[in-house]
Write the structure tokens for this entry.
Amino acid sequence: MNRRRNHFTIQSKYLLLILTGLCVLLMTITFTTDLFTGTLADISGYVTVPFQKGISEAGSYLSNRSEELVQIRDLLQKNKELQEQIDKLTIENNNLTQEKYELNNLRSLYLLDQEYSEYQKVGAKVIGKNSGNWFHSFTVDKGKNDGIQVDMNVMSGSGLVGIVTEVGPNWARVTSIIDDSSNVSGMTLASGDNMIVSGNLELMNQNKISFSKLIDSEGKVKEGDKIVTSNISDKYLPGLLIGYITSIESDSNNLTHSGTLTPAVDFEHMDEVLIILDLKQKTENKE
Amino acid sequence: MKNIIFSAIIVIASFILQNTICRYISFGNIVPNLLLITVSSFGFIKGKKAGVLTGFFAGLLVDIFFSAILGFHALLYMYIGYFNGFFKRLFYKDELKLQILLVGCSDFVYGFVYYLLTFLLRGRFHFTYYLLNIIIPETVYTILLTIVFFLTRTLFVKLFVSNERKSRSEIV
């Protein structure tokens, strides 16, 4: 019953050889050009994305419900604490708005307002996450049709999540900054020194990323300092929050420092992200 | 033709489940490799050719959505399907040991080769870390999932298929 009738008779080892050749060809082609990715991404996007959307919606619904049941008591407690915090923050906020007013005045004096102008953002749902344990990228439900382009920055809440590396008609792939192969040029707010922030699979489980090549000649940088994206990156917009320094030590060359930082985003529970529609290259061209 | 459509549906379904449902059942950030179970089972149930083809298309899906270089996962999954195909002769539906062994070995080899090609070549030499924290947990979890599938199938057969066993033999 299990026996199949084969209409075409190719021996399996030749099939293997042919497909191996095809794979190698594909790899070399995609490594050097971007010839195929467009069409293939289009076709497969139409087949799988609707299902992915549905299933991940259902899945997140179920897991949210089950989590809700567990957490109700916890939430009541938290609610009380948060209420207190709100009071505290309202006072703080009032102070800050006052300071912001002052800051705006000063900025216009220094003609710096262009640099911190509001970026256009669009929200997107995470529909599929890294298949496997080796890399950290995910797909979202907005694509070319919604104006998404490769190299757009992705945020969640106030922190940087990653960058769009591939777009289909109705989906886009985001490679996150904690992926082992991603590097971001960062900057400390304390001293304005630049550094390289690179993801690391070993640190990923501890929810950390590593940084290196920080030149901090005055020794100003310490644990807890904010790290934002730097001005010199050609893909990341400046001033996006990456995270906070958790450990820092000087390298053996005594010139640079390296260490780890905690990202501002919770990569485990990320259901919605914001995609910034401004591209770094374009905004520079405008000026 | 019926077979091809059936296989395509299984592959696409397992790909979708792999990156939607699987992250909700992850233990300590480790996700079982459902796609590998599919490819491996196609190999040892239906033979080398089926293994090669399902491996190729399953890997290609992963490549399109999650990988920068097209064809890398396709190549890896394809060879896994092919080598599982050698064990078609030894395969009996009701025996669990061979299935566990094959799926386990496949997943381990997959993890190992993946580490060699994408991590070791970039200078990540801390092999024991990756072995203990990713490769072995993933293999164990994948084997567990295989056992769960096997038990569900046996239960299913016991409950519903007493007289018409023949017509159900497609389900794995």
